[in-house]
Amino acid sequence: MGAQKKSATARVSEDQEELARNPLQAILLADSFATTFRPITLERPKVLLPLVNIPMIDYTLAWLESAGVEEVFVFCCAHSKQVIDYLESSRWSSQPNFSVTTIESHNSISAGDALRLIYERNVIHGDFVLISGDTVSNMSLTQVLQEHKERRKKDANAIMTMVVKKSKPSPITQQSRLGTDELFMAINPVTKQLLCYEDKAEHSKGFISLDKTLIADNPSIILHNDKQDCYIDVCSQEVLSLFTDNFDYQHLRRHFVKGLLVDDIMGYKIFTHEIHSSYAARIDNFRSYDTISKDIIQRWTYPFVPDILCGSSAIKVERQGTYRASDVTLSRSAHIGSFTFIGQGTKIGNDTKISHSVVGEGCTIGSNVTIEGSYIWNNVTIEDGCQLRHAIVCDGVIMKSGAVLQPGVILSFKVVVGQQFVVPAYSKVSLLQQPTQQDSDEELEYADNTSGTGELRSDKLNGDIAADLSETAYELGTGGVGYIWSVFEGAQDEEWKHSVAPIPKDKLVKLMLDKDEDEEQLTQDGNVLSASGELKADSDDNGSEDDDNADSRDDYGFFEKEVEATFLRAVHENVKVDHAVLEVNALRLSYNMASVDCAGAIFYSMMKLAVESPHHSASELHRNAADIITKWVKLLKSFLHDIDEEIEVILKFEEMCLESAKEFAALFPQVLHLLYDKEILQEDAILRWADEKEGADESDKVFLKSSEKFVQWLKEAEEEDEDD
Amino acid sequence: MDFQVVVLAGGSSKNLTPLVSKELPKPLLPVANRPVLSYVLHQLEQNNLKDLIVVVEGEDTALVVGAWISGTFIDRLHVEIAAVPEDIGTAGAIRAISHHLTAKDILVVSGDLVSDVPPGAVAATHRRHDAAVTAMLSSIPVSGPLDSGSSGGKDKAKKLGRYNIIGLDPGKQFLLHIATGAEIEKDARLPKHILRAVGQMEIRSDLMDAHMYAFKRSVLQEVLDLKDTFQSLKEDVLPYLVRSQLKSEALSNRTPQGEENGNEKVTSQNNQVFVSRILANSSTPSFHDHSSENPDGSAPTRKTHKCCAYIASSGSYCVRLNSIQAFMDINRDVTGEADHLLTGTSSDPNNNIGPSPKLGTKTTVGPHCMLGEGSEIGDKCQVKRSVIGRHCRIGSHVKVVNSVVMNHVTIGDGCIIQSSVVCSNVQLQERVVLKDCQVGAGFVVTAGSEYKAESLARKEK
Fold first, then answer.
1. B277, B297, B318: which is the final residue of a domain?
2. How close B240 comes to chain A (CA, Å)?
3. ipTM of predicted assembly, 2 dp
4. What would the pLDDT profile of A308-364 be if each residue is shown by its tens digit?
5. Is pTM, for the whole model, over 0.80?
6. Do both B381 and B446 map to the same domain?
7. Interchain proximity A170–B290, CB inside 8 Å
8. What dihedral do alpha carbons B80, B81, B85, B90 form, nearest 10°?
9. In Å, how far is B61's CA from the nearest CA of chain A?
10. Which domain holds residue B392?
11. Is residue A529 within 8 angstroms of chain B, CB to CB?
């Protein structure tokens, strides 16, 4: 015991030494490689968007600094120049013991590309923290780093530790709070190893699938639906090289994490670390922007709150969570409600009511304005009588008097809303036109979002955009400037999920109903299952044989499909018979099948092809079958070594006639005869088949009866032979 | 306690041939020289669950079993014997005796369960949660009955096929998912809607369903009426109830509580719910209540029912006698490590050797052995880890290791019996060698023959 303790402490000190030798490094991806913040991100990178009046990246960097990270590599891609300029002018460029280095790229379209590039630069020398520049946290990294290192010592394959946090308890808010997709994780409760990660509605059925071997290996697995992924990862160096090895990995979670979980050859493992009291969340979309802003105002992220982060401009925190900069001009009759932030130099007129909102610097807000749950950035002018509810208003926007923003509206930079104009709910308005190439394929969306397009457009903005706009100005009322982006199909019903506006009640009801539907599907599925379950014997039976059968049946199904595909390719590409034989043989070996199975599968493919090729009558079908059989007789025969295999072909044919290709039912005797003529089937095989079937059920004998004559003839022929 | 107990004793079992016969049906198969059924009945008696229906397959079997029960438990238990046709499944059996069920809750126990888990605890758990169904789960014994011996070297995936995949809530009180390993072809499919409602689910593959269930009678009867194709409690009824627990179809047309006690007043119902909540130690309503609520917090629109689990503590003994291997293992365990199961029953607790055994000179009977009343053993014999029944005559120089020998067996001189089962009235002539064999009742093994891994039985009919 004592010795053990000693070694443990020794190890700790060793770790500390190691820490001292290798400064803790972090990779900060200053590009989310996503389009959720469009149209705003067409003009400014996401990491520089103000979150309670401070650029997001500042929260991330401040946290990294406080967590003991000494070297940060900021990877910038979209609008890289803006990011670099910002970092150079900010306080981060001159911090002691905290170096911020930027890595610029113009052609990376995903996190995978970014990490490959960083690998090439060869700047990471040990464990590092991987984070994106839109993460707000105040967690301490000591414990997770420690855990990671300990695990690495025991198991070199434990290359990554993911930070997760429990989300809010109510089933409805679980996913809706941050507007992210539902996330299911399976974690081993003892080792904390991540076993399954499912974040998209890709298996939108009401089931999660856990691989059998996982269950066999882990006697206890906890499936979580109540955890959120904080997108803070502690990685070992290998992670970078893995990205380089697997050049198709793009998305950190969807490709990398899942890829590792599925791949059991390399045996890399991912672990999780759950944080309880500290804060960590990533701004993924407008909804999480809203949620996290509120969390910051309510000081969950302490010490990363506005009044501490920007120490220079004195921001005072007042009662009810109201933050006010020093030189705000506030009318006496203006009412500032709870949890509101008012930035420097902002003027607010009479009888204006502001609550649960953030108002940036240098804004001018007129009289009788109502602002509720909205985010107003810098230098915005809001004239008298405007109403804003749950909207995001970017820098330089002008709202003419009486304009109304309905919930969920996004006004991008310098948009002008005309007098009395009502911007409909969930609209996104920008001076830039909506990019026309909208592709549902995410990979392409990444491509879309690269700096190239974005910057080109902003160049254009400075030039002739005014001319462009004059034509379409009516979109935003008289005197309005900007395009209302149309919501493209498919995303329409998703819009409310990701918007800043709270989810309306009817949508919540819909959410519940969706679940119901899931459930119904499920019960139906279940019934199907139990129907098959009934066939099973008494519960005394432990069912291991069933299991084996199920497995092999399944395998055979795959095998048959493969053979069919091979055969079709052979037909269409005129592959030589010998080659086809080779290919089928290869399949046979890889699926561990017998040549009986091959014969069955090939015959099946041939007949299927015959049925699927165009025909109008039974005789044409017969001719089709005859043609195909004649042409590929050699392929089939190379798998027919003995009578058993030939019988298998007959059985297969019978099965097809009963199930997949009923059209053949009428032609059964003819085709049987054809097969006999082509010397595919020997008479022994047919006779033995007939004998076997003799004892079967009546229903099984349909085909025997229909081919009775032929069998009879064969028998007689045989007898004659014997007589001779 | 207002619990009615249904003991599904079964009848002949294919898995147990040649051990069982018309004269010796499965419920009466001797485990440490007393019928396997007595273990369950004894446990029930201990837990004051005395209102029983013993369901037996086949009229003849019912007579035999009934005679034994009335002889043994007379005046101690209130037992009804019900005969049902063979091969109608466990659900079918309950359906057949449905009209006998009157109590509020029904405890269904498999008659072949040898266990020290108190059924009363399962019943109490069931009541505490006011559950629709409560299933007893036990951890898989380390050297499990199915695992040992011949099947030892199988790989994990196959092993999994035999066990259940069970989903539990974080408090390990509710049963959220159940599937037998055999149903799972490649991967386990777990229902998302339940997971959404609960938040997290623990998937265990190291638990087995011990075939002891407590059902709410109304629910059980309704499900059986509604789904007339259901054959098995374990494979149909229980998974169905678990699957539909957040959207209870079985109860959709009635109120779940108190409907059978027509005299119960509405107010007391509410009280009951309240009390049950306190008992459940949950000041916050469970997820069942959550998910039955509308998002705007209005009255519940959907019925839910609770499926609970009682997990036997890891030290407890819980094995079902459903194979020959299990039969041997249970015999060995009951005389050995799990001998507390024998205490309190009729026999003398510390001395497993019956009252009047006659042992020859230089004969050794090792520990963990049992020797029935009136048996005689000749000179220079060895008996190790074996059970020998009543009135057996064993010659000299006989070795019996790891075996079960039933009653009235004659074993000639110089026989060697290893890991075998020898049924009643068998005659083993001189120098017979048996290894891994089962010898059916009344069989005569001729002198000098050697058998290995064979099943010997008299040809009947």
1. B318
2. 8
3. 0.72
4. 877 656 788 888 888 888 888 888 899 988 899 998 889 999 999 999 999 999 999
5. no
6. yes
7. yes
8. 60
9. 18
10. 350-456
11. yes
